[in-house]
Amino acid sequence: ETKEETPATTPDTKAPAASTEEAAAPAETAGGDYHFEVIVKSFQSTYWQAAVKGIETACGELGVTANANGPANESDIADQVQMLNDAIQKAPDGIGLAACDTNSVLDSLTAALNAGIPVVCFDTGVSDAPEGSVVATVATDNKAAGACAATNMYPVIKDVVAAATADKPVRIGEVNQDATALNIQERGLGFIDEMIKLCTADGKKVAVVGNEFYVNNCSDKGDEKTAEVIIEVGVPAQTTVDLAATEANKIMSKADTIAIFGSNQTTAEGVITANETLNKLATDPAEGIIGAGFDAGTPQKAAINNGKLIGSVTQSPLMMGYKTIYTLVDVCNGKTVEDIPMDGYWYNADNMEDEDIAPNLYD
Amino acid sequence: MGDIILTMKGIDKSFPGVHALDHVDLEVRKGEVLALMGENGAGKSTLMKVLTGIYKKDSGTITYEGKEVEFKNTREAQDAGIVIVHQELNMLGHLTVAQNLFIGREFKKGITIDDKKMNEEAKKLFDRLNVDIDPKEKMSNLTVGKQQMCEIAKAVSFDAKVIIFDEPSAALTEAEIEEMFKIIRDLKKKDIAMVYISHRMDEIKVITDRVTVMRDGTYVGTLITNECTKEDIINMMVGRVIYEDPKTESAVPEDAPVVLKVEHLNAGKMVQDVSFELHKGEILGFSGLMGAGRTETARALFGADPKESGDIYVNGEKVTINCPQDAVKCGIGYLSEDRKRYGVAVQKTVAENTTMATVHQFMRGIFINRKKEAAVAQEYVDALATKTPSVDQLVVNLSGGNQQKVVIAKWLTRDSDILIFDEPTRGIDVGAKNEIYKLMNKLAAEGKSIIMISSEMTEILRMSDRIVVMCEGKKTGEIGIAEATQEKIMNLATREID
Amino acid sequence: MEKIKQNAFVKKVGFNRIILVLVMLVMYLSFGLLTGGKFFGMSRIMDTMNYVYFLGFLSLGVTFVIATGGIDFSIGPVMFCCALVSGYSFLTHGIPMAAALILSVVIGLLFGIFNGYLVAYWKIPPFIVSMASMNIAKGIAAVFTKTQSVSWPQSSDANGWYRNFVKAGNVPTGLIIFLTAAIICGVVLNKTKAGRYILCLGSNKEAVRLSGVDVKKWEMLAYVICGILVGIAAIFYVGAYTTVQPGYGDQYNNEAIAGCVMGGTSMAGGLASIGGTVIGVLIISLLQQGILALGFSKDYQFIITGIIVIAAVYADVSARRRKN
Amino acid sequence: MSKKTNFGKINGREAMVVGIIIVMVALFSILSPTFRTYSTFVSVLDMSYYIALMAIGVTFTLITGGVDLSIGTGLICYSLFGGYLIVHKDVPVVVALIACLVLSILIGALNGLLVAIMDLPPFLATLCTCMITRGLGSLLSGGFGVSWPSSLEPEGWFRKIFRFTVNGKVIPIGIVVVVVLVLLMNFILKHTKIGRYTIAIGSNKEATKLAGVNVKFYHVFAYVISGFFAGLAAIAYSATYVTIYPGSGAGFELDAIGGAIVGGVSASGGVGTITGAFLGVLVITLMKVGLPFIGLQANWQQIFTGLVLIGAVLIDVVKKKK
Ligand SMILES: Nc1ncnc2c1ncn2[C@@H]1O[C@H](COP(=O)(O)OP(=O)(O)OP(=O)(O)O)[C@@H](O)[C@H]1O
Ligand SMILES: Nc1ncnc2c1ncn2[C@@H]1O[C@H](COP(=O)(O)OP(=O)(O)OP(=O)(O)O)[C@@H](O)[C@H]1O
Ligand SMILES: [Mg+2]
Ligand SMILES: [Mg+2]
Question: Which residues form the signal peptide (chain C) (predicted)?
Answer without folding.
Answer: none
